[in-house]
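RECORD TYPE: inverse folding
INPUT: C-alpha cells
STRUCTURE:
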C-alpha cells in the first residue's frame, strides 16, 4: 500500500495504481491495455489531483524561462533525406519543430513530480500496462523526467517515436492549439506504408484521431507505429507537459550529441557511457 503523501498526488479512487493484486487494479490495467491495443493511446483523465496540478504548474511556470529552446526541421522518421525518392515521399518531407525542455535536475527534488516518479508504485503500473518486465527508471539525470515547454507559435510536426512508449502528464494547457493528433497503426514492422503517411501529411484526415488533453491527464502512448503531432500553440499561455521516462536497461542514458541538441547540456555520465573523453565535455 502507498502512503498518504503519494495518494494525495493522484486520484487514487479512480486510478488505484497503488493496489496491485486487487480486482480494481487488474481492471484498470486491462482497460489501459485494451485502449492501447485499439489505437495505441490511453488517457487517464484527471489522474493528477487539482491541488497537485496547482503546485506543479507554479513550478513549471517558474522553470520555463530556463528551458533550452531548440529549433529544427525533420521528417517523420528523424532520418536523412533520400535523393533517390521524390520530393513528395515522406522521407523527403521536412517540417519545422520548435520547443524547449527544462532538464529534470532543475526540478525541486521534493516536488510532487519526483515523489510520484520515484515511487515503485508508478513503475510497477507502467510496466504492467506495457507488459515490460523488468522496467527501470531512465538513468539519464537530465532526461528522466523533464518539462516540455511549447510557447505560442511552437509545434511538433508529424513523426513516429523511436522509443517503445511514452508517458506524459499534462500540466498546463495553452489557450489555443496544442492538440494531440494521431493516426494509429499507420505503419507496421513489415511495411512502412509510405503512401498512407504521405496522404496524412498532405491533409487527408480520414485516419486521424484528436485528443485535447486537460490539465492533470496522464497519457500512455505507443508512438513507434502511430504517426502523431502536436498542433501549433496559440494565445498567450505556454503548453507544459511533464515526461516521466523508463527503460529496459538500468544504466541507459542519452547520446551526448542528442543531449546537447535537446537539453543544451552534456554531463560526464553521457560521455562515459558513450566512451568519450571527459575533456570533450563542452557546456
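DESIGNED SEQUENCE:
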Amino acid at each position: 500500500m502507498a502512503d498518504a503523501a503519494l495518494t494525495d498526488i493522484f486520484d487514487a479512487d479512480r486510478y488505484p495504481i497503488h493496489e496491485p493484486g486487487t480486482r480494481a487494479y487488474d481492471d484498470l490495467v486491462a482497460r489501459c491495455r485494451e485502449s492501447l491495443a485499439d489505437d495505441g493511446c490511453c488517457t487517464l483523465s484527471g489522474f493528477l489531483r487539482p491541488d497537485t496540478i496547482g503546485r506543479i504548474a507554479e513550478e513549471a511556470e517558474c522553470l520555463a524561462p530556463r528551458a533550452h529552446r531548440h529549433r529544427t526541421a525533420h521528417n517523420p522518421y528523424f532520418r536523412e533525406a533520400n535523393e533517390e525518392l521524390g520530393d513528395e515521399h515522406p522521407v523527403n518531407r521536412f517540417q519545422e519543430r520548435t520547443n524547449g525542455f527544462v532538464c529534470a535536475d532543475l526540478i525541486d527534488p521534493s516536488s510532487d513530480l519526483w515523489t510520484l516518479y520515484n515511487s515503485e508504485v508508478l513503475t510497477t503500473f507502467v510496466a504492467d500496462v506495457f507488459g515490460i518486465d523488468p522496467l527501470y527508471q531512465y538513468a539519464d539525470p537530465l532526461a528522466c523526467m523533464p518539462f516540455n515547454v511549447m510557447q505560442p507559435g511552437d509545434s511538433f510536426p508529424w513523426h513516429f517515436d523511436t522509443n517503445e512508449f511514452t508517458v506524459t502528464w499534462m500540466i498546463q494547457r495553452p489557450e489555443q492549439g496544442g492538440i494531440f493528433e494521431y493516426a494509429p497503426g499507420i505503419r507496421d514492422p513489415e511495411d512502412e506504408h509510405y503512401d498512407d503517411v504521405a496522404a496524412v501529411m498532405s491533409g487527408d484526415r480520414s485516419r486521424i484521431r484528436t485528443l485535447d488533453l486537460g490539465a492533470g491527464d496522464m497519457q500512455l502512448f505507443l508512438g513507434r507505429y502511430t504517426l502523431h503531432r502536436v498542433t501549433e500553440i496559440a494565445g498567450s499561455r505556454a503548453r507544459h507537459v511533464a515526461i516521466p521516462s523508463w527503460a529496459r536497461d538500468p544504466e541507459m542514458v542519452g547520446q551526448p550529441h542528442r543531449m546537447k541538441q535537446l537539453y543544451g547540456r552534456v554531463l560526464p555520465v553521457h560521455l562515459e557511457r558513450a566512451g568519450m573523453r571527459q575533456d570533450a565535455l563542452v557546456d
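NOTES: The chain has one domain: 4-275.
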